Amino acid sequence: MTAIIAISNQKGGVGKTATTLGLAAAARAAGARVLVIDLDPQANATDVLTLPDVELGDGAFGLLADPKHGGGQALSEVIVAGAGEWVGVDLVPGSRSMAEVDTDTGATQPLRLRKALGQGRDSLAHYDVVLMDCPPSLGRVLLAGLVAATHVVIVTEPAGHALQGVGRLEETMTEVRDGFEQSTPRLLALLINRGKRTAEAAFREQELRDSYGPLVLDGIVPERTAVADAASAGLPIHAMKSPGASAVTVVLDALWAQIDARLREAAPTPAATPSS
Ligand SMILES: Nc1ncnc2c1ncn2[C@@H]1O[C@H](COP(=O)(O)OP(=O)(O)OP(=O)(O)O)[C@@H](O)[C@H]1O
Ligand SMILES: [Mg+2]
């Protein structure tokens, strides 16, 4: 069963998209076949992963929306193959129209993405891992992502409010667990992004490690301008040639190796938990 990892934090700007793209590149470099699902209406990951003027179709909107309003599409219909430097990393694009999903209060809405991925299991079988770039803020798209996920990786910065941000997402995961009994995304890891050599960053890192112990991955993605430069150039950080890019790449590869090992240790939770 392909692991479906929600890369998330309700706090904005902590590096969810940069981490999704970085881990996608690291996983591909390690030989994995990767599918990125862009669940953010800002579509930042889609902008990086695709070339301008390429027809993207409905993307994730086609999986999330009401079938009467453009949803109900098959996973195979909405996947765009990775091109150029991104060959081997396929994409279900995000789009501004996904913002409509947050106002869709239909009873079936939270389960649609999960159902689409379940029905698309033949397409999913082409991939070793699915990375879902989640939106900030708690809306129905994030909920749908957590309901569909088998695992969650929380991205955080070593800064004030990091603990509260992680705690808030854990509460949301609990709501998902209680509200959709058959769905049990497992908190796989906490990943610290944007490390700095400051006393404040060291303090916040220790605070996270004291609270979450081995859930926190070893190694911190450093703050380097190469991360933003790679995004602007539409390139994987692995393709950038600079000392900063190399420093980030080395850490991302090591973080992916830990995530991969955790996935292998415990197979993803089965879609349906048998009732006892
Ligand atoms: N390790 C890093 N070093 C330097 N810049 C970074 C790093 N990680 C992310 N950034 C930059 O910080 C900005 C915010 O990152 P990103 O878009 O990944 O955050 P996000 O959590 O996805 O934001 P949102 O909540 O809006 O979706 C981007 O310009 C990105 O290039
Ligand atoms: Mg983002």
What does this protein structure show overall?
The chain has 276 residues and is of the alpha/beta class. The chain has a single domain (3-265), classed as P-loop containing nucleotide triphosphate hydrolases (Rossmann fold), CATH 3.40.50. The protein is 42% helix and 14% strand. The chain contains eleven helices and seven strands. The protein has helices spanning 16-29, 44-49, 61-64, 75-78, 109-119, 121-124, 140-148, 162-179, 199-212, 225-233, 243-265; strands at residues 3-8, 34-38, 89-92, 129-133, 151-156, 186-195, 221-222. The chain has a seven-stranded parallel sheet with strand order 3-2-4-1-5-6-7, with helices on both faces. Strand 6 (186-195), helix 9 and strand 7 (221-222) form a beta-alpha-beta unit. The chain is globular. The structure holds adenosine-5'-triphosphate and magnesium ion. Magnesium ion binds at residues 16-17, 40, 44, 133.
CATH architecture type: 3-Layer(aba) Sandwich
**Structural class by SSE content:** alpha/beta
**Which residues sit in consecutive blocks of at least 5 with pLDDT less than 50?**
270-276
Count of strand segments:
7
The CATH C-level class name: Alpha Beta
Q: Which molecules other than protein and nucleic acid are bound?
A: adenosine-5'-triphosphate, magnesium ion
Number of domains: 1
Largest sheet: 7 strands, parallel
Order of helical and strand elements: EHEHHHEHHEHEHEHEHH
Strand order within the widest sheet? 3-2-4-1-5-6-7
